[in-house]
Amino acid sequence: MNDLQLRPTVFIADRVQPGDIVLTTTPELISKTIQRVTGSDISHAMICVGKSSVIDSTGDGVHARNLERIILEPGCSGHVLRPLKQLTTEQVHSITAFARAAVGTRYTMSGAAKSVMAGLVAGRRQFCSRLVAQAYRDAGLDLVMDADFCHPGELLKSSALVEVAAPLRFLSADEEAGWRESMDHVQAMRNSTNLLLQEARKLSASIESLNDIDIYLVENAEADAFLVHALQASRYLELWRDELERNSWQYHVALMEGHSGSDARKRKYCYAVIEDEKVGQNRFIMNHAGYVALNAMHSRRYFSLMVDLYNILTDLNDRRVKAATSWLSRRGLLEVAARTLLRPHTPEWFASLREWNPKQAAMTQAAIQAAATSDACSICADEPANDYALLHTPAAGPGTLRLCDDCLRIRCTEEPMTPF
């Protein structure tokens, strides 16, 4: 055995894409038991949901983690599987959305054991291979005979999947020392999510995931104050501040230019951001729209706080994309297409607004229907009205409005506009 074979390995992030299935093992006894019973060299399964981001189910529950910070000890196996037939964009969205919706769901050791020994009745709690198989089933793809009870070995042997070649590399001694010392910052999100759910489960044992909190709160308005306190105490609303402080260079091209990292590292990062945006560009926008709609139908402070959170996250994501795009564009590595603004009150304009703020879209539609003309003001339905574009293009939504003079004066105090 050479010296390299005694080194730990890590996944090569560039060879793993959203929708891929990542299989691993560890030196722990439970892992070895699963390998022995299933006749395979792996014991754990994860889904890639973005660049260097995977979601899995462990003793902590269902959470995201950084793929590049998963160290496989010497002798431990790692595989990356991909469907024989390339996934459509819609299928990738469906698989990753299913995994993200399960975040916070508790792990079931008994379910995992049953999947290895014998299939029984499926429950709502998750274990790793079930999460993967169910996410694919939700996208219309059956990987195994029973998605509710399957083990990682079945995924490895699935005829619907093929292995990605050479997904691992050896970790150097210097890298290992630094990586083991550095904190996996995704752990902070896992801890925060678990704290929030632990408090929420004091209200109802039926709450498994974050989505369950929303459902419970719709039916139990009196729980709003309790859940708002749990949300704030968990720091769930504040984690973006930590990320912004830790990686401020990622949010402005001038800071990126002055960052000490090499151009090669920045180029790799920027391309990853652009590629990630193509796959998951609507995630924060969709969550924002969902909470806007929920709060419109069931007014809760908890929902209002989540609207504010996703407004911030959408803006931060937009800043990251713009910084990465600008850095690549300055070096002639990316051709930037100008954003096309939409004419107010067209079907495309309403579709864009509905995607971001369904309440505002419904109110505008009702206003112009009452005025019996689409030429009326987007806000109050008065006439005459003219078209304007926001000087600072928003992260989401059409970025244009049809306004009467009074509404223009009111809106311009906070949002500078120009005739469109």
Give the key terms.
six-stranded antiparallel β-sheet; endopeptidase fold (from Nostoc punctiforme); alpha+beta; 48% helix; 420 residues
- The CATH superfamily of the domain at 4-170 appears as endopeptidase domain like (from Nostoc punctiforme)
What is the averaged pLDDT score?
87
CATH architecture of the domain at 4-170: Alpha-Beta Complex
Strand runs, count: 11
Task: State the secondary-structure class.
Answer: alpha+beta
The total of helices stands at 17
Q: Could you name the ranges where pLDDT drops below 50 across 5 or more consecutive residues?
A: 108-123
CATH class of the domain at 4-170: Alpha Beta
Using the CA coordinates, give the radius of gyration: 24 Å
Kindly report the CATH topology of the domain at 4-170.
endopeptidase fold (from Nostoc punctiforme)
Shape: globular
Give the fraction of residues assigned to helices: 40-55%
Element order, helices and strands?
EEHEEEEHHHHEEHHHHHHHHHHHEEHE
Report how far apart the termini are: 70 Å
Indicate the proportion of strand residues: 5-15%
Question: Main beta sheet: strand number and arrangement?
Answer: 6 strands, antiparallel
- Adjacency order of strands in the biggest sheet: 5-4-3-2-6-7
